[in-house]
Amino acid sequence: MKMMDFKSMLEQRQQEFDMALSTHFNEPTLYQHKVFEAMRYSLNVGGKRIRPILFLEAYSLCGKSSQIAKDFACALEMIHTYSLIHDDLPAMDNDDFRRGNPTNHKVFGEGMAILAGDGLLNYAYELMLKRTLDSDNPRPALLAMNTIATASGVYGMIGGQVVDMQSEGKAPNEEDLSFIHQHKTAALLKASVVAGGYLAQASQENLSRLDAYGHHIGMAFQIVDDILDIVGNQDKLGKTVGSDLERGKLTYPCVYGLEKSRVMAKEHLESAKQAICGFGPSSEFFSALADFLLHREY
Ligand code: GRG
C-alpha cells in the first residue's frame, strides 16, 4: 500500500472515530459541566487515535462490524487521554504543552485536571460495562475489557509509569528499560489490538498473531518516541524536545545509543509485519500502519 493511500485511509478512520466519540459527549448543560469541558478539551486536542484505530482494525480483520466495537474504541481513547492528562501534571512530568497546546492543568487548573483524568478513566468502564450488559453474549466483551483493564492497571501502564518515575537519574540499565517500555506504552497498544480480536471472537491462532503484532508495534512506538525526544522537530511534535535527557529518564538512546535504537525499532516493526501477514491481503492496513509508526515525526 502506498503511504499516500494509507494516510487518506487513516484520516478517514480518524474522522469516523471522532464522530463516534462525540456522541458520548453531547450532554446537555449539567451542574458538573466543567469536568466534561476539561475531558472534551484533552480528547479533542489533536490525538492520532492510534489505539482506537488499532482496536477497530483488529476487530474488522476478524470479520466483524458493530456498534459495541465503536464504543470500546472510544473507551480506549478515554483511558489513553486520562494517562496523558495525569502524566503532564506537575507531580509527574510537569509539562506545559502537549500536541502544541497547553496541557489540561494549564487550562483548567490542577484539581480539575485530576478529576478530568479520573472522569475519563471511569467513563471508559461505564461505557464498556453498559454495552456488555446490553449484549446477549457478554463473554467476548468481558474478555476484551479484561485485556484492557489489565494492560492499563498496576500490571500494565500504571506499573510502567511507577518504574519510569523511579528510574529518573538512575544509571542506565537494560532490565528497567525493558520493563518500562513494555508496561508504560506497549501494554495498552498491544491490548488495543488483542481486545479487538477477543471482541470479534477470533481463533486462538489469530489472537496469537494479533498479540505478537501488538507487542512489536508497542515496543517500536516507544523506541521511536525516545528517538524523537532527541532528534525530533519541536513544532511537529508539539512538545519540548530533550525533556527525557533533562530529567535523566531511562530511554533506548541512553542505553543503546541512537543508531542501535533505530535498528531495534526497525527490527520490531519487521517482526510486527511478519506476525500480521498471516491474515493475508486484508492485513495490508496494519502493515502500512507499522511503517507509519516507524517513520512518524509526531
Ligand atoms: C499517568 C498512569 C499514568 C500513566 C502515564 C502513557 C503514559 C503513562 C505516559 C505518557 C508519556 C509518554 C509521552 C509516553 C510515550 C508514549 C506515548 C504514550 C505517547 C503518546 O501517545 P500518542 O503518540 O499520543 O499515541 P496522541 O497525542 O497521538 O494521542
Task: Compile the SSE list and pairings.
Elements: H1 3-22, H2 33-43, H3 50-61, H4 67-88, E1 97-98, E2 101-102, H5 104-108, H6 110-134, H7 139-152, H8 157-167, H9 174-199, H10 204-231, H11 234-237, H12 243-247, H13 252-256, H14 258-276, H15 284-295
Antiparallel strand pairs: 1-2
Helix pairs in contact: 2-6, 3-4, 3-9, 4-6, 4-9, 6-7, 7-9, 8-9, 9-10, 10-14, 10-15, 14-15
Bound molecules: geranylgeranyl diphosphate (GRG).
Geranylgeranyl diphosphate binds at residues 47-48, 50, 83-84, 86-87, 99, 157-158, 161, 184-185, 222, 225.
Describe the structure.
By secondary structure, the protein is mainly alpha-helical. It is 73% helix and 1% strand. The chain contains 15 helices and two strands. A two-stranded antiparallel sheet has the order 1-2. α7 packs antiparallel against α9. The longest helix has 28 residues, at 204-231. The protein is globular and about 55 Å long. The protein starts with a helix and ends with a helix. The structure holds geranylgeranyl diphosphate.
Compact overview of the structure:
The protein is mainly alpha-helical and 298 residues long. It has 15 helices and two strands. Geranylgeranyl diphosphate binds next to helix 4, helix 8, helix 9 and helix 10.
